[in-house]
Amino acid sequence: MQVPSPSAREAASMYGTAVAVFLVLLVAVLQGSAPPESPLPYQILLDPKGDLELSWDVSYTQETVYFQLLVQEVKAGVLFGMSDRGELENADLVVLWTDGNNAYFGDAWSDQRGQIHLDSQQDYQLLWVQRTPKGLCLLFKRPFGTCDPKDYFIEEGTVHLVYGVLEEPFGSLEAINTSGLQKGLQRVQLLKPKISIPALPADRRTMDIQAHNVLIPSKTTYWCHFTKLPQGFPKHHIVMYEPIITKGNEALVHHIEIFQCTGQLQNITSFSGSCDSKEKPQELSNCRHVLAAWALGAKAFYYPEEAGLAFGGSESSRFLLLEIHYHNPTNIQGRYDNSGIRLHYTAKLRRFNAGIMELGLVYTPLMAIPPKESAFVLTGYCTDKCTQAALPPLGIRIFASQLHTHLTGTKVVTVLVRDGRETEIVNRDDHYNPNFQEIRMLRNIVSVYPGDVLITSCTYNTKDKNEATVGGLGTEEEMCVNYIHYYPQTQLELCKSHIDSCFLQKYFHLVNRSNLEENCTCSQASGTTCPQASIPEQFASVPWNSFSRVVLKALYDFIPVSVHCNKSSAVRFPGKWDLQPLPEIISKLEEPTPRCPTSRDQSSSGLTVVTIGGGKV
């Protein structure tokens, strides 16, 4: 085969590196072979129509992700890759494209204007390409970290996958710009933990919690469906659950959650409709205890063999709320849905009840984020005093975690501290997005003992806000929560904190020049003696300048906190919990950094010319 010479523009993008030597991948032997049957364990549809299907697997020993991209209708090529927040600009990409005569595969990147450039370091390695009855299939791999400044560092947590479809040939790679392409994104957890699947009990039964013939709205919508357990349903253990996705809607059902309502509720009006509907019963706001959660790319969720999540019986509520997030950016019409979650449960109770505990910040306007901030951090504490009072002598084992904020959250991390030293990360998501929340199995079980500290920090972006965003239950307010799944279950259901209100009143007096008493006292003996004005109103009157921002940040970082060390009855454990000093940290864990591959395929220094049935895509 004669390999065409690169254009001058391509040569320039390689910073003078020779691009004349292309790797020619001959795939004639693959043309007659049978297509692989889903050789990789994780799958996701990238686009709403289902024309782009991604499968992948993870090798932790090689620190490499293997991708298989199936393109059902190939026109002139496709872009696929990752970016910080899901934009096709400033993205790390792999590109399959044609100039009308030859097809090419290469590692590329896009700048802030959407211009595509060939990467001087080719870290996506094409393994094979083949036409199948379903479309064009490509298998390629990429290390977690490459130490290439143009590449995305693949780490645990959310990854924003981006794609673009090329409708016509381009004379050179750098003639491509993302601005006019059909494009989109999907969020997944690429680095799935390698966990052995526990055996399920022989007596297990199933219960389907599903929507009923919902006409999927033509816009992104949260759909709420109320249901209840049968009267007199006895206590069981949930041992596994899995998604039920209506065929054809795989790209539209973004995530699903089942919430259990509080035990005090005796009856709730039946409801199925938009979660934002004015007709939604007010009682459903009391359904916030997460029972199960699934998101795109996730597989079945298994409890450890020795534990199960209790539901049913006299001690829990019969009432359940199914919430489905429909993501329909292209306004597909006339699609009906019956998706939900299938619970697998057993009447033979396991050794331990699994529990769910809330870590982070109390839902209160005392914790707020100033406007126009790109990375403002708030932190909540589960203190050593609380774990000493509430945890059993042998401690608890955390095996899964669900991180949660509202609309401005961009990063969440929970770290375990023992004897003043950060010892391990419980869960971390540096690319967190509130539209992608799932219960994630931990790669390693985390043991927490009496006297340990759990610190949860959330980072927020309020660049588009003109007023402070206060904490609270509302969508436009903020939260910082880590729902940890653990065993054995204890009485401790909530271990969170907030700043002491009196010190915040002193802050308002300082920055607002208000008429508050300058001598208001903040002591454990006398309590808060400052006036209790409306906190949101006082935040709204703050003149947001460098001084007020720095002082508020310092306040949150150093002032004593009020700790909520609560039982399931919402009553605190005995003890004094106000004006608690912040935990002293004498040693911190290092930030995660990419490890550069020890060796690199030197032959892959430029584009790969792909020959498939005459060379055209």
Automatic annotation (TrEMBL):
PROSITE patterns the record matches: DOMON (PS50836)
GO biological process: behavioral response to ethanol; blood vessel remodeling; dopamine catabolic process; fear response; glucose homeostasis; homoiothermy; leukocyte mediated immunity; leukocyte migration
Keywords, ordered alphabetically: Catecholamine biosynthesis, Copper, Cytoplasmic vesicle, Disulfide bond, Glycoprotein, Membrane, Metal-binding, Monooxygenase, Oxidoreductase, Signal, Signal-anchor, Transmembrane, Transmembrane helix, Vitamin C
Function: Catalyzes the hydroxylation of dopamine to noradrenaline (also known as norepinephrine), and is thus vital for regulation of these neurotransmitters.
Quaternary structure and partners: Homotetramer; composed of two disulfide-linked dimers.
Family: Belongs to the copper type II ascorbate-dependent monooxygenase family.
Annotated protein name in UniProt: Dopamine beta-hydroxylase
Organism listed in the record: Vulpes vulpes (Red fox)
Lineage: Eukaryota, Metazoa, Chordata, Craniata, Vertebrata
